[in-house]
Each structure stands twice: as structure tokens, then as C-alpha cells.
Write the C-alpha cells for this entry.
Amino acid sequence: MARKAPLSDAALELVARRFAVLSEPMRLRLIQALFEGEMNVNALVEATGGTQANISRHLQTLTQAHVLARRKEGLQVFYSIADPSLYKLCELVCGSLEKQFARHAESLAK
Amino acid sequence: MARKAPLSDAALELVARRFAVLSEPMRLRLIQALFEGEMNVNALVEATGGTQANISRHLQTLTQAHVLARRKEGLQVFYSIADPSLYKLCELVCGSLEKQFARHAESLAK
DNA sequence: CAAGTATATGAGTATATGCGCATATAAATT
DNA sequence: AATTTATATGCGCATATACTCATATACTTG
């Protein structure tokens, strides 16, 4: 395997955009709720404690980014995780933050 | 292993913050440059084509988030990757985006 | 077709943040 | 100590985006 070539400006913007989509606590809450399985908007509103309008907007953002999938069934709209890499992604970040805190705790203990 | 408990609000904010730090193209360019190894500010300015002031600010953001490490040597300041999870993180996101494009290409081909 | 229910969206406001310019700080050199 | 070099930072502007309120749209049911 050859060394990875540096990403183009356009590619960097896409990667940055992907991270930006994941950089809001409410969107992470939605994703976390959907880790349990597909849910409709009302259920997500209740699960997260947000307003319907705000949740709807965040769902739009996540769906446009292909992070979530949208399925309409009658009056209701069901959302689900569309990007399987999300699981590992969240694990990675959580693990990294835990290590960071562990180090911080050590330095406090000194 | 027990099922993961949902993250607290505080934890979600930290995770969101981590993603936010990675959501700027210029910061990703810096990280990409540093994947090659430790570099000082001037080298990073040249490598990325940014202004010195702007690069310095981004380096501050990344260092405060413990994504980068800072080492001062005389007049120069050297930065390096402090969080090893960054490699996998970027790989994951790039891979996910590639798959997304592959699907999009298919749908265009139809 | 009228009324009700689930979801989406337009408009306005508040806040955050990236960038450039100028300048400040810190350390080496003369 | 004065000057030069490397890096950091205060400030202001422009833009992005999260949130709320009100209303629109889509679908179902009587």
C-alpha cells in the first residue's frame, strides 16, 4: 500500500463538514437514541426533550449528510442510522476522551 | 460487556466539542501536515498557505483540545499529533465518505 | 370535504467563530 | 540594551448556525 496522498481542498471540506454535522450535542443525542433502533420524530422529540421544530431541523441536517436514513410511513416519518461507521466513530472519540481524562486525573493526583 | 449507558449531557458536549475542533478545513490541513511528523509554526504556515496569525489561532484551538502537543525550543514552537486516535478517526471518516460517493456514483450511472 | 395529527419550514434573533490587521510577547544575537 | 526573529493575541467584521414561534404541508379519518 502506498502512503496516503494528502487530501484535496474539496475533500478536506467534505471531511470538515462531516465532523461539523456531528458537532452539536442535540444531534449526538438523536444519534444516540437511534443506536437503539429506528424511531419516528415524535419518539425522538420525547427521547431528547427538544422542541419538535428543532428536532426536525436537526434530523434534516443529519439526513442531508447521509448520516441518517428517512422512511415515511403514513403520517409518520421514521429515522435510522444510515452510516455504520458512526458506531466506531463514537467509540473512538469516547475512548480518546476517557484516556484524556485519565491523564488529567493523574496530573491532578500529583 | 454490558450495553453502553447513554452519555450524560456533559459528556455529549465534550464529544460535540471534539468534533467541532475537527470541523474546520484549515485545522484538518494542519493535522494532515503533522501526520508527517512534528513541525514548527513557520513550516506549518508554509505547508498550509495560511496566514501566520490564523495558523497560530488554529494551533491554539487544537492544542487546548489536546489534539496537538506543543513543544517550545528557543524561538520556535513545535507541534505534533497528541491524540493517536486521530489516525483511525480520519481513516474512518474518509472511508465512509468514499463509500457514500461510490453509492452516489452508482445512482448516477443508472 | 372538514378536522385532526405528524412533520417540515419560513422568519427573526442571538451567539459563535473564522479571518485579517495590527501589535504584543518571548527568546536569540549583536 | 537594541535589534531581529518566531509566535501569540486583542479587536473588529462578516458569516454561519442553533433556537423559537408561528404557520405550512402531508396524510388520515370522520
Q: What stands out?
A: Chain A is about 65% helix and 15% strand. The radius of gyration of chain A is 17 Å. Helices of chain A lie at 9-21, 25-34, 41-48, 52-64, 85-109.
